């Protein structure tokens, strides 16, 4: 493993540790760059709690390294409390059956009034 790969892995692990709800996505919540990322953002936005994101299109090292760490090949990836929840299909299924909202609310602060 190269030093850059180690640095990238350390950065990813730090991001996951620092942010209770973290979405690795293509684009930004304001301008998603693929339909799957757009649907993931929409589900999280409807929950109404803050979440962090990383635009993997601006971070090719993260884009290349994260699938190896997560053992999950595609994006977006939702991480909650340090654990990979899954991609947009899993997120949408959890959102529709009511499992995603309490999970996100458990780990994400209520918005300021």
Summarize the structure.
With 113 residues, this protein is an alpha+beta fold. It has helices at residues 3-18, 35-47, 60-70, 88-96, 100-107; strands at residues 21-25, 52-55, 77-80, 83-86.
| Assigned CATH architecture | 3-Layer(aba) Sandwich
Main sheet specs: 4 strands, mixed
| Tally of domains | 1
Count of extended strands: 4
Q: CATH topology, what is it called?
A: Glutaredoxin
CATH superfamily: Glutaredoxin
Strand order of the largest sheet: 2-1-3-4
Compute the CA-based radius of gyration. Answer: 14 Å
Strand portion: 15-25%
Q: In angstroms, what separates the terminal alpha carbons? A: 47 Å
Low-confidence region ranges: none
Overall mean pLDDT score?
A: 94
CATH C-level class: Alpha Beta
Succession of helices and strands: HEHEHEEHH
Q: What is the percent of helical residues? A: 40-55%
Structural class: alpha+beta
The rough form would be described as globular
Number of helices: 5
């Amino acid at each position: 493993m190269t030093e850059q790969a180690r640095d990238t892995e350390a950065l990813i692990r730090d991001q996951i540790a620092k942010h209770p709800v973290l979405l690795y996505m293509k684009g930004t919540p304001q301008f998603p760059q693929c339909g799957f990322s757009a649907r993931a953002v929409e589900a999280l936005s409807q929950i109404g709690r803050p979440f962090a994101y990383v635009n993997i299109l601006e971070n090719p090292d993260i884009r290349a390294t994260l699938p190896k760490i997560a053992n999950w090949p595609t994006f977006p990836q939702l991480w909650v409390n340090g654990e990979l929840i899954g991609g947009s299909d899993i997120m949408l299924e959890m959102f529709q059956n009511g499992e995603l909202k309490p999970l996100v609310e458990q780990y994400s602060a209520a918005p300021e009034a």
